[in-house]
From TrEMBL:
Orc1-like AAA ATPase domain sequence ranges: 395-580
Species of origin: Skeletonema marinoi
Region (Disordered) location: 28-83, 295-316
One Pfam family per UniProt: AAA_16
InterPro entries (alphabetical): AAA_16, Hybrid_Histidine_Kinase, Kinase-like_dom_sf, P-loop_NTPase, TPR-like_helical_dom_sf
Name under which the protein is recorded: AAA ATPase
PANTHER family: HYBRID SIGNAL TRANSDUCTION HISTIDINE KINASE G
SUPFAM superfamilies for this protein: P-loop containing nucleoside triphosphate hydrolases, Protein kinase-like (PK-like)
């Protein structure tokens, strides 16, 4: 090989071999017509006939090329100029070539008459076979005709260019086998098997297949194999004969493959052994090619040791041996064992071989050099212990479902305009989790994040989402939290939640480490927030946190598995995530068991809520995999070609139904029972199909796994039982404690991991079950009647072996197991001990805000109490009831809370011990809408605290209370009030808390009492000092002053400043009460003093603060005022505002705040009406039209909602010119006000200004009609003018333009010339103060006045100005109405054409 550059030749493929000059250095160039190949390299034996179309007739002894023809050749048309050239000769035939035509001539002079006749028959037979093949196969030597050549019988055929397989193999072995890549050989093998398959499809068997009769030709990166010399081919018309002859061809194919992939030169071992054996086995192979097949049980009797050595030598590496997959294929092709031997694998057709080779190419390309198809060596578990090894990711047969998920991933990461969602539904063990895990790689390619959590029937569901987020941040902290990506995430989280992130630190400890380097946080902020608010706060903070993680550069996929066990809070978070307008580049994937979720399930109800809110999501069904997918899985696991696995996969699919986890467990079971084993002699996996077919097994996967586990050693079974009782996750320490006294072996956990029962989570030391079904199967090992005893034993053993210092670490393992065996405990002292442990667990989890779980432990503790516990264990009993009432209030389980409160309110030893129960009870009553009962309870508690409130409030009582509060405030400046001492008396602090509860309950049901509550809060503050609730009291008092008949705007403004400053002083900038203070100060006080536009940002700030603190009621109330002020008062663009409005209506519905949702929907509908859109948002959100909604409010006595709706209709109808409808709704509103004085006594919002303004304009319109009701409407107008003047004196910015317009319209009524100047002043003020919509209205009203004065040109100009203002506002209806006026007026103007 001195002349061979191995480095250059290493990457040669077969196609390059055929390129011109590629083989020149190897002395393998094709022979020229009529010449022979010279041999310049003495180390390489001379080759003849390269590129020829010779038949195999001369294969046993090829004569050197000769330039002297045996016969005088006469050229055929199209032949060479010099005539046909002799290529080769044999005993009775000669081969000539004339360009593209070959001629096989019978040499009659060298043959007897009988031999010539036989040869002629062969020529005719070859012609017949060729014609038979032409219909479906072109990859053979095509016969043109049987004729004569110079008087001798001859067969004319199409010359095939290329190189014979034998010549190629010989040269490859002489050079170096590793030079030619494995894939080159593989593609050559594919070409050969494909051609043989085509022969068989034509019912033709070749019968003498050998490397000399195969010509290989490169074609577009692949190879074509053409078979030459069809003289021994057989056309089979009998099925049995065809089957036998195909077996001969398949055996020959195996021999060729063995040579093709053999590392050493001179042919493969199996071929050598077969040749040495000699003899006939199928009748059709001539000479030494008719061989006996060698198998483990056949003629070649060798020891297992010798055979193993030989096979191992063949399979070490692709260059030195055969890959396991390919070795099994060749073994099956050469297999001539007993058909009754169920462990033998054999091929039935060449097409199966071809398909398996194709699968090998595809698999090898996708898995590169690590593919099991390319690897020859297995670890000791396989070779010695015969133990199956499964891929980590059993992903088979889910291409359709995967494409759907990838489409969603692409949409969410590329568009990112809104969150996307998909649910994966299927039965247990169908591979839902595996399907979802396929997202990880494409997501990582997009620099995205993957957060996953899993619910479990035995684990607290309200900690799953927090644990998933905690694991996510822990992985970031462990990697490199200083990278730019993570720094950017810190900033986003800080911007989204600010210092409020501290409330997440208890539930997401890793977040504390992630964030503390970048932001200062308040460690105590949020600790004193009430349970219900804390629950709302956590949901909102989870949404904000997830929204901050996901962005364009780092999209996020959140996966929650086993949603059928999810808790209400987590489902609420999912619902919030999907409708949150601030979340982008986010995909949620949820998995659940389809067979465990029906229409009444909590998950179904939440999904229906999501649908009703207009969120579309995809449900992807995951069922059993198809038989072919099972076959692919088994092929990969056993490293056998798919065709050879098909008999086994058919049986496995039938027994498992295609449930992928069941398939895995069955294969493990078959392996353990010795029905699937690794053969050291044949160096491949084998199976006993017949025994597998008759094997009986359960149709239930859990039962089947339990049966399998029951055959394990007793030590192993005991360990599995113990671990099954510990839940889905546990560490080594807890297992060591549990196993004391129970011998489970030294390597139990490692064995469980090896057997696929458990998985270890990285370096954390924690173990999890491979699947919850595996845990269930292990649990089923415990007899049903012994389970309670088993749990109690485990819990007791843990408790007794745990020191007081580490009890908190193992408290949940202890309590969970003890509670499962509680019915076996009769001893009262033991019950009290268990109740104490439940209290400890409940309080611990309550601190982490897992309210649902805390309820479970606390209620379990209460159930353990004896009837005399109020006497014997009073402290334990009252603590359990206090904590349980707090948890129940947080979860919103008000009926259970009401029932729970009965006993402590009766048996508590002192009033002080009842206060916490009362506090939670009145909060529950208020939240559930039972305001009367809430008020009654509060009044009762306050009376016991020394604060008496009258049940019936007369005008005299009201005046007396007003006088008292004013007296208390005489001489108190703003600074004096802010300098008041802090309230310290416990009773007064408690009284302020219950007065605060009454504020909400009395606002709509008892306004006079509401005011007395406000007055009492102010007086108590002045008398006993300030607390955070004092700020609410001052703000409410200021709102009352602003709406009182005396219109004490300055006093109200002062009280508002006191409330704001006192809140900041006592509570800080992130105060829990901020939403309430801002609602009162900026919604009911400052609107009389400061520009309305300045309040918009305060409402937004209050909304965010309320959502962060969990005070969603006041948060949404602030956003309601924001949109009312924005649309009605400030004239914001209708289109832009309506788009965000729609999202906030959904958010209000999501939080089940119907009042806020309805109020926001009224504003949304107003925008649609003025824009001219035929949309009915009431129908979309509530399933009602406007008239039905109006009736609903009246029927349910919702006065405030009725007032808001009347004001909206009145406003829209007036602006659109429907004056009769406007007048009708004015009357309805006045009737409502006459029956309810809520608005007049408890505060006025900004909409009261607009309502009064529109009332005045309606009155002036009808007064100008001079009908019988002129006096009524004139009075309405004059009252509005008077109020507007007074408000203008307090806030000229907000009211001056409105006051001027009302005066202008009044002067118009009175035919006073001053009207023009007032119109102009109204236009100027509206423009200056950014009230674009009211500027347009003033222009329109002035144009109408000018028309009355016959000043058409100027009127036209003001109509045009009005159109511009309305267009800017987005009020298309008003634009169209003014356009009509312009169209009519234009011809009347001087400048018109």
């Amino acid at each position: 090989m001195d002349n061979i550059d191995v480095d250059d030749f290493f990457n040669l493929d077969l196609e390059s071999i055929f390129e011109e000059g590629s083989w020149d250095d190897l002395n393998l160039s094709s022979s020229p017509p009529g010449g022979h190949v010279s041999n310049s390299n003495p180390s390489i034996p001379e080759l003849t006939g390269i590129g020829s179309g010779r038949s195999a007739d001369n294969a046993s002894g090829v004569a050197p090329f000769s330039t002297t023809p045996l016969l005088s050749a006469t050229p055929r048309p199209g032949g060479d100029i010099n005539g046909p050239q002799l290529v080769s000769t044999s005993t009775c035939t000669s081969i000539y070539r004339s360009q593209d035509t070959g001629i096989k001539v019978i040499d009659q002079s060298q043959s007897t008459s009988s031999n010539v006749q036989q040869t002629i028959q062969k020529l005719l037979h070859e012609e017949t076979v060729s014609k038979r093949l032409l219909s479906q196969c072109n990859n053979h030597r095509q016969v043109i005709e049987v004729s004569s050549f110079n008087g001798s019988p001859a067969l004319y055929f199409k010359w095939e260019n290329g190189i014979t397989c034998k010549e190629w193999l010989d040269k490859v072995h002489q050079i170096h086998p590793q030079i030619v890549e494995f894939n080159v050989r593989l593609r050559a093998a594919m070409a050969i098997s494909k051609t043989l398959s085509q022969f068989h499809q034509c019912s033709v068997t070749y019968n003498s297949l050998s490397p000399e009769n195969i010509v290989l030709t490169p074609l577009e990166g692949d190879y074509v194999a053409k078979f030459i010399d069809l003289s021994d081919a057989v056309i089979c018309n009998d099925e049995q004969t065809f089957k036998e002859m195909m077996a001969v061809d398949l055996t020959s194919l195996g021999l060729i493959f063995d040579q093709l992939f053999k590392a050493e030169g001179g042919g493969g071992e199996a071929y050598s052994a077969a040749a040495a054996a000699g003899g006939d086995n199928a009748g059709g192979l001539t000479n030494s090619r008719r061989v006996s097949i060698v198998s483990d049980g056949g003629e070649e009797e060798v020891s297992d040791h010798n055979r193993n050595v030989r096979k191992r030598g063949k399979q070490r590496a692709p260059g030195e041996g055969l890959p396991l997959y390919l070795g099994a294929m060749i073994s099956a092709l050469l297999n001539n064992g007993d058909d009754n031997d169920a462990s033998q694998l054999r091929y039935k057709s060449a097409n199966d071989v071809y398909e398996d080779l194709k699968a090998m190419v595809a698999h090898s390309s996708s898995h590169h050099q690590s593919s099991s198809l390319r690897e020859a060596d297995f670890d000791n578990d396989v070779t010695i212990h015969s133990r199956l090894k499964f891929p980590k990711d059993l992903f088979y047969g889910r291409q359709v479902q995967m494409s759907m998920i990838l489409h969603l991933l692409q949409s969410s990461t590329m568009l990112g305009d809104q969150p996307m969602m998909a649910l994966i539904a299927g039965y247990p063990g169908t591979g839902k989790s595996t399907l979802v895990n396929q997202v990880k790689k494409p997501l990582a390619d997009k620099n995205g994040f993957f957060i996953e959590g899993k619910f479990d029937v035995s684990v607290r569901p309200d900690k799953v989402l927090a644990s998933a987020l905690d694991s996510f941040f822990a992985s970031i902290n462990a990697s490199n939290a200083g990278q730019n990506t993570y720094m950017s995430m810190r900033w986003r989280i800080n911007d989204a939640v600010g210092s409020g992130v501290s409330c997440l630190f208890d539930v997401i400890p890793s977040l504390r480490k992630f964030m503390t380097d970048s932001t200062e946080v308040d460690r105590t902020e949020g600790r004193n927030i009430g349970g219900n608010l804390m629950g709302q706060r956590l949901k909102y903070m989870f949404c904000k946190l997830i929204g901050a993680i996901s962005c364009r550069s780092t999209p996020l996929v959140l996966v929650l598995d086993d949603l059928q066990w999810a808790d209400k809070m987590t489902l609420g978070v999912i619902r919030m995530l999907m409708i949150d307008p601030d979340i982008h580049y986010f995909l949620f994937l949820g998995c659940y068991r389809e067979n465990e979720v029906n229409e009444s399930h909590m998950l179904s109800a939440n999904l229906n809520d999501i649908r009703e809110q207009g969120i579309n999501f995809m449900t992807i069904k995951v069922g059993a995999i198809e038989k072919e997918s099972v076959n692919a899985l088994i092929s990969d696991v056993l490293c056998l070609p798919p065709s050879l696995c098909r008999p086994l996969s058919t049986v496995v699919h039938q027994k498992t139904g295609g449930i992928i986890m069941f398939v895995r467990r069955l294969l493990i079971s078959l392996n353990d029972e010795g029905l699937v084993w690794y053969s050291l002699s044949s160096h491949r996996w084998m199976f006993d199909l017949r025994k597998i077919e008759v094997k009986e097994m359960s149709e239930d996967v859990v039962k089947h796994m339990t049966e399998h586990m029951s055959r394990l050693p007793k030590k192993m079974q005991m360990g599995l039982k113990l671990c099954a009782c510990l839940g889905p996750k546990f560490d080594t320490a807890i297992v060591e404690k549990v196993q004391r006294g129970a011998n489970i072996g030294d390597n139990f956990l490692e064995s469980c991991v090896d057997d696929g029962f458990l998985q270890i989570k990285g370096d954390s030391g924690f173990y999890t079950w491979a699947h919850d079904q595996v845990q269930q199967a292990a649990y089923e090992l415990i007899p049903l009647q012994q389970r309670e005893k088993f749990h109690l034993l485990i819990g007791s053993r843990l408790f007794l072996s745990t020191s007081s210092a580490e009890i908190d670490k193992f408290i949940f393992y202890i309590v969970d197991n003890m509670n499962r065996g509680v019915t076996l405990v009769d001893n009262p002292q033991q019950k009290y001990e268990m109740a104490e442990l439940n209290l400890r667990a409940g309080e611990k989890i309550l601190e982490r805000h897992s309210f649902q779980s805390s309820v479970k432990y606390l209620m379990a503790g209460i159930a353990l109490l004896e009837n005399d516990s109020w006497e014997k264990k009073y402290g334990l009993t009252i603590r359990l009831h206090d904590a349980a009432s707090e948890a129940l209030c947080a979860t919103g389980d008000f009926p259970k809370l009401t029932a729970l409160a009965e006993k402590p309110l009766i048996y508590a030893r002192c009033f002080q011990d009842k206060l916490n129960i009362y506090n939670n009870l009145v909060r529950a009553l208020s939240s559930s809408g039972e305001n009367e009962e809430c008020i009654s309870r509060c009044v009762s508690v306050l009376s016991q605290l020394g604060e008496f409130l009258p049940k019936h409030i007369t005008p005299d009582i009201y005046r007396e209370e007003v006088a008292k509060v004013k007296q208390a405030l005489i001489g108190q400046s703003k600074q004096d009030l802010l300098s008041l001492p802090v309230m310290t008396k416990a009773k007064k602090l408690t009284a302020m808390r219950f007065l605060n509860h009454m504020l909400i309950a009395t606002y709509s049901t008892n306004p006079p009492l509401n005011l007395l509550v406000v007055f009492r809060m102010v007086r108590m503050t002045v008398d006993f000092g300030v607390c955070n609730i004092s700020a609410v009291g001052f703000a409410c008092y200021g709102a009352w002053l602003a709406s009182s008949p005396n219109d004490e705007y300055e006093g109200a403004f002062t009280m508002g400043r006191v409330a704001s400053d006192l809140m900041k002083k006592l509570c800080g900038a992130e105060a829990e009460i901020l939403p309430r203070i801002y609602l009162l100060v900026y919604g009911m006080i400052n609107i009389f003093k400061e520009p309305w536009q300045a309040s918009l940002c305060k409402y937004s700030e209050a909304f965010d603060a309320g959502m962060i603190s969990g005070d969603t009621e006041y948060a949404l109330s602030n956003i309601t005022l924001y949109y009312m002020l924005s649309l009605f008062n400030c004239g914001s663009n209708l289109k832009e505002t309506s788009q965000s409005l729609h999202k906030f209506v959904k958010r209000a519905l999501q939080y089940q705040h119907q009042t806020a949702a309805r109020t926001l929907a009224i504003s949304e509908q107003m925008a649609y009406d003025l824009m001219g859109l035929k949309k009915n948002c009431y129908e979309a959100h509530f399933g009602l039209d406007e008239e039905a909604l109006k009736n609903f409010f009246v029927r349910n006595k919702l006065a405030n909602m009725s007032r808001n709706l009347y004001q909206k209709i009145k406003y829209v109808t007036y602006m659109c010119g429907d004056m009769d409808a406007a007048a009708k709704h004015y009357d309805l509103q006045e009737k409502l006000n006459a029956n309810c004085s809520v608005q007049a006594t408890t505060g006025r919002t900004s909409f009261f200004f607009i309502s009064t303004f529109i009332d005045g304009l309606i009155g002036l319109y009808f007064a100008r009609k001079h009908r019988e009701d002129e006096a009524k409407w004139t009075h309405v107008a004059e009252k509005a003018i008077e109020l507007m003047k007074k408000w203008t004196d307090s806030s000229s910015w907000n009211c001056a333009n409105k006051s001027y317009l009302l005066q202008a319209e009044y002067f118009f009524l009175k035919n006073d010339e001053r009207a023009y100047a007032c119109y102009r002043a109204s236009i100027t003020k509206a423009r200056e103060h950014k009230f674009n919509h009211e500027e347009g209205l003033a222009h329109e009203k002035l144009a109408t006045y000018l028309l009355y004065k016959n000043q058409h040109d100027e009127a036209l100009q003001h109509f045009q100005n009005a159109k511009k203002c309305y267009a800017t506002w987005g009020a298309n209806v008003l634009v169209q109405r003014v356009e009509k006026a312009i169209t009519i007026l234009s011809p009347l103007c001087v400048g018109s054409i």
